[in-house]
Amino acid sequence: xxxxxxxxxxxxxxxxxxxxxxxxxxxxxxxxxxxxxxxxxxxxxxxxxxxxxxxxxxxxxxxxxxxxxxxxxxxxxxxxxxxxxxxxxxxxxxxxxxxxxxxxxxxxxxxxxxxxxxxxxxxxxxxxxxxxxxxxxxxxxxxxxxxxxxxxxxxxxxxxxxxxxxxxxxxxxxxxxxxxxxxxxxxxxxxxxxxxxxxxxxxxxxxxxxxxxxxxxxxxx
Length: 221
Known about the structure:
This protein is of the alpha/beta class. It folds into 2 domains: 20-149, Rossmann fold (3-Layer(aba) Sandwich), CATH 3.40.50; 190-221, no CATH class. The chain has 6 helices and 8 strands; from the N terminus they run βαβααβααββαβββ. The chain has helices at residues 29-41, 49-52, 59-69, 79-82, 85-97, 133-149, and strands at residues 20-23, 46-48, 72-77, 106-110, 125-127, 193-198, 203-208, 211-216. The protein has a 5-stranded parallel β-sheet, sandwiched between helices. Helix 3 (59-69) packs parallel to helix 5 (85-97). The termini are far apart.
């Protein structure tokens, strides 16, 4: 059975030689252990209170050793952690050792939707919540690799060409006077003029909508 990649059977609680110290509050212990296991499975050496601060050890000293001697600190950030006095002491010590982030000594992994308190808000974080376990594992290992290597996050393949928005339809031309159709003749009073019908007896019948008028042609007219 895999032991998560951890070949160190001792639990001295010291941070010497450790790649990462996992800073968390007890409410987030499951997340901290998952992070530690995933990193050690990938070959990283991790210091985490749940496994390394064993009975009889001084956990305050272990915490100080972790922040002081581990190469980097990973904060398991949640609302509970943001309220933790000891959590604040740990991330602030890591931040003070690398305030401009040049060596990427402080990594922030959010495990729920929460604000980043104080100066922690200036550190670029990554999220492990709201995604699949496979995606979370990939995000964690990528963050660790970028921190250790100091490389950029440039993808291995070219990004797709960003197609622009669909072209807007051409504006219809302004209808000037020359392009307008001739106006229909005005309707006479009483309705809309339809036409004139000649009857066989010489009568002319003018038909209006709603009105029928009879006009007899008189001789000489």
